[in-house]
Amino acid sequence: MDGRILGEIHQVDLFKNGNLQLLFSTQNSLTVLDRDGNSVKPFPLNFKDAVTRPLSVFDYDNNRTYRFVITQGRDLLMYDSKGSIVKGFGFDKAASEISQSPQHIRMGNKDYIVFPEKEGKLNILSRQGKQRVKVNTKLDLSENGWFENNGNFVSVNTEGELLKINENGKINREKSGFEVPPFLTATENTLVLQSENILKINDNTVTLDFGLYTRPQIFEIGGKTFITITDTQSQKVFIFNEDATLVQGFPVYGTSSVDIYQAEDGAFILGVLGEKNSAILYRYN
Question: Each residue of 233-256: pLDDT tens digit?
C-alpha cells in the first residue's frame, strides 16, 4: 500500500458478471482489487496531488455503471469503471476546500450531487456537475452528511438544528431537541437522530441505558425498515422498527455496527463482530 485507506472499502461489480471487486482510495491512488488481491487493470490510478476526502462511488441507475469521485482540495475528478475521466462532468473548482465527500441523492427522477465547503457553501449539482439547486445562505454545518427525506435535503448544523432544503433552495430550520448536534441518518421516509443514550426515530423517542453507542443505521429490506445501534460498552445490539419499537428477541450480543441481508427463504440475517477475531450471524424472521 502507498498509504492509509481513506474511508470505507467499496464492493463493486465492474464487469457486470457477478464477480465482485474491492475498491478504495488512499491519499495517492485509486485501487481496485479482485478476490485474490490482484490489481484490476488499469488500476491503480496514481495522483500527483493528494486525495483529501474518502472516495465516493455513484451508481445512478443501479445498473453497475459506476462513477468514482476523487476529491482533491477544491477539485473533483470523476472516473468511470475503465479508469477514464468522465468527459460529461464539468464541475468548476469550488470556492473553498471541499469538506465532505460528495453524495449522490435521487429525488423522483432527478439526480443530485451534494457536498459542502469549509466556508459554509452547499453545492447541489446535476450529473453534469452544473449547479442544480442554488443555496444562497452559508451554513454552519456539523460533521453529518446530507440525506433525502420527504422531498428535502436534510442535515444538522453545529447548533443541533435540523436543516431541510427543498428543491428550490428554500431552507427550513427545526429544533432537533438535542443540546449538542446529534448524529443523523435518513432515507426517504425515515429520519433518525441520536445523541448519547437518546434515539429519535421520526417522531418517536427511545431512551437507552447510558453507554458507548455506534452511529445508528437504517436498513430497508424486504418491505421492512430496521434501525440498528450497538452499545459497545455493554456489547448489546438493538434493532428497532420504524415506529421505534424494539424487534422481538433483541438486544443480542455484539461488539460493532452490523450488516443485515435477507436470505432466499425470507429470513433476515444479521452479521456483527463478537469477541476478538470472531464474527456472529444471527437469523430471525
Answer: 999 999 999 999 999 999 999 999
The grid coordinates listed for 259 are: 450488516
Residue type, 219: F
Q: Where are the beta strands (DSSP E) in 117-151?
A: 122-125, 131-133, 147-149
Question: What is the total residue count of the chain?
Answer: 285
**55 residue type, one letter:** L
Q: Looking at beta carbons, which pairs linking 114-117 to residues 24 or more positions away fall under 8 Å?
A: 114/146, 114/153, 115/146, 116/141, 116/146, 117/74
CB 201 within 8 A of CB 228: no
Average of per-residue pLDDT across 74-83: 97
Please state, as a whole number, how many other Cβ atoms lie within 10 Å of the Cβ of residue 7: 13
The CA-based angle 279-281-285, given to 5 degrees, is 165
Is residue 221 within 8 Å of 261, Cβ to Cβ? yes
